[in-house]
């Protein structure tokens, strides 16, 4: 098997063509993919295999091995609640144009089909909406067009919708013709700056679980293209691990509780996007404020102190998060509303009472990150991981913070620890 060091030339190709940061999936994964393809095509040296990669067919085969296609229907239901609400508003306004949604990358199809079902349930007939679905993978698109899925993919589909929009076929479920209407699949690279250039703009763009796998240059290209594709009043929906990569010059939080949604920053009189906006609401784990000096009434020293002397009897006896969800929900709601100082104060009070609560530390960490207090955020997120080493949200948020600090290797290591926690992977 070839060494990891030998794959640098191929890593450079992956970065330049599809924007993949090899560290985000692990360089060992790239090495294994290359070794497998070399064996398949009969190449003895890496130089021979590089010659093979000039052919589109072999390039596609390699890319298929580094993509992670896991997805399922109605993933993160709050995102589809947002689609339904926007669709109802569109219908009530009497617009003549169809309501338009883009899913990129769409993987094997559950996301765009979920959007279509949601729009039908919101009262829009198929001729009143368009769902465009884009992916680089030929295999994924073939599966999407087939529209047949196993039990795992449909496990979150409510029973009434399963009966209305799916047909049981052997041991699988096939999307009905009714749910397919209005959905169109096409092949394309989401990091191509000209992707879908010339098409009508979209009311909502789904772009979930891809930014965390891109290098910095590719992320900028993708966000710039997304801003071009969105209507001025449109909404971008991302994955929960990607919020720190979105808020910036182009986007600001849409302030939709429990949904990782963003709107374009307003354009000023000179045609430039405004930068002096209030700190965005915390749409979910990882959202950062637009200013790193967001105000806070909680001191840095207070952030790292658990005030164990004031811990309640419940906290001292190993209190579990699920025993008092309302308290945690209060912290989340404050952060979602952009009341970051109050969210941090509530978070500290929670931890003082429940020092063994990994979720409490996690919420305090994302509130601190949103307020631009990155060192404090890292401290409490590491404490969350000490208490619960597999906490997916803490792992992904800490990875984003380490990447921001320039520690790419640590960020990649943390992201590898999240694999197998149910998130999908890179789909350029």
Give an overview in words.
The chain folds into 3 domains: 4-66, no CATH class; 77-264, 3-Layer(aba) Sandwich (Rossmann fold); 300-418, Alpha Horseshoe (Serine Threonine Protein Phosphatase 5, Tetratricopeptide repeat). Helix content is 46%, strand content 11%. It has helices at 8-18, 22-25, 27-41, 46-52, 56-66, 77-92, 110-121, 138-146, 159-165, 177-180, 216-229, 300-304, 313-316, 325-336, 340-353, 358-370, 374-387, 392-404, 408-418, and strands at 99-103, 129-135, 148-149, 166-169, 172-175, 183-187, 202-206, 230-237, 251-253, 261-264. Strands 6-2-1-7-8-10-9 form a 7-stranded mixed sheet. Helix 6 (77-92) packs across helix 7 (110-121) and helix 18 (392-404) packs antiparallel against helix 19. The protein starts with 7 loop residues before the first helix and ends in a 10-residue tail after the last helix. The model is unreliable at 275-323 and 422-427 (pLDDT under 50).
Order of helices and strands: HHHHHHEHEHEHEEHEEHEEEHHHHHHHH
Any idea what the shape is?
Answer: globular
Structural class of the secondary elements? alpha/beta
Give the CA-CA distance, first to last residue. Answer: 27 Å
CA-based gyration radius: 22 Å
The CATH class assignment of the largest domain is Alpha Beta
Strand order of the largest sheet: 6-2-1-7-8-10-9
Query: How much helix is in the residues?
Result: 40-55%
Q: Are there runs of 5+ residues with pLDDT below 50, and where? A: 275-323, 422-427
Global mean pLDDT: 80
Can you tell me the CATH architecture of the largest domain?
3-Layer(aba) Sandwich
Question: Into which percentage range does the β-strand content fall?
Answer: 5-15%
Question: Total strand count, please?
Answer: 10
